[in-house]
Specification:
The structure is a single chain. The chain is an alpha/beta fold and 242 residues long. It has one domain (4-240): Rossmann fold, CATH 3.40.50.10420. 32% of the residues lie in helices and 15% in strands. It is built from ten helices and eleven strands. The chain has an eight-stranded mixed beta sheet with strand order 4-3-2-1-5-8-10-11. A three-stranded mixed beta sheet has the order 7-6-9, covered by helices on one side. A hairpin with a 4-residue loop joins strand 10 and strand 11. The longest helix is centred in the C-terminal third of the chain and has 12 residues, at 229-240. The chain is globular, with a radius of gyration of 17 Å.
Length: 242
């Protein structure tokens, strides 16, 4: 089986003719031609339509998803880069409609969103009902590989650990067709599989694969614990209740 890094390098190279800025795409969740069309496929799904609070990654190809969430009146939760400042909550009712496009960017999210740096602040918003992740590669059974930093899986662990999100929450991604590979992709115990995926031309629904429950503390990089205040707070809370 190929390693995760081999899969990433294969996709980054194969996607080059279809890539959009920012460049270079290597090392990123790559932006691609057709990202808007992939997002429009996602918007048709009943789980998305009924969700009032959605979480999305901040990467460029999912900007159409974030913009759509705001235009459709959904509360939008985004993680800050490397989770250093927790999460951002964007309430479309508090943002001028003319500023939705700006607010759907990471810089605009900091301008128009409210920072949620503590568990108590997160617990005020209600449950996240739909999640969108960025991907470098996926397979046709729902396994996903990101860019290698692990923050999407860590966000899932944090939000499920504090009860803000169910382990079985619908999780989707939007990718180019070239990013969809034959199974199985290599996976680690903390990797969170997808419920559905959308390309410019296809829609996928996957049978449920096993997901981790909360944070896998024994496997967590100690450096992340030191650098992410929210994670340290959660660790301390967990330790008190043991």
């Amino acid at each position: 089986m190929r390693t995760k890094e081999e899969v990433r390098n294969y996709v980054w190279e194969a996607l080059r003719p279809y890539a959009l800025p920012p460049f270079p795409i290597k090392g990123r969740i790559p932006n691609f031609k057709g990202a808007k069309e992939a997002a429009e496929r996602l918007f048709k799904e009943p789980e998305w339509r009924k969700a009032e609070i959605v979480k999305s990654n901040p990467d460029s190809p999912q900007r159409w998803v974030r913009l759509g969430a705001l235009e459709q009146g959904k509360m939008l939760l985004m993680a800050t880069p490397r989770l250093r400042e927790g999460f951002l909550l964007l309430d479309p009712k508090k943002i001028p409609k003319s500023k939705y496009r700006e607010a759907s960017t990471i810089r605009g999210a900091f301008k128009y969103g409210a920072k949620l740096k503590t568990i108590n602040e997160l617990e005020t918003i209600g449950k996240v009902e739909f999640v969108v992740e960025g991907s470098v590669a996926i397979d046709t059974e729902g396994r996903r590989i990101g860019k290698g930093a692990g923050y999407g899986d860590l966000e899932f662990g944090i939000l499920t650990e504090i009860g803000l999100m169910d382990v079985g929450v619908p999780i989707a991604t939007t990718v180019h067709d070239i990013q969809v590979l034959e199974p199985p992709l290599p996976q680690d115990p903390w990797d969170v599989p997808l419920s559905m995926a959308f390309t410019p031309t296809r829609s996928f629904r996957f049978k449920p694969l096993k997901r981790p429950r909360g944070i896998l503390w024994d496997l967590l990089d100690p450096k992340k614990l030191e650098k992410i205040p929210l994670l340290k707070e959660l660790k301390n809370r967990t330790s008190r209740f043991r």
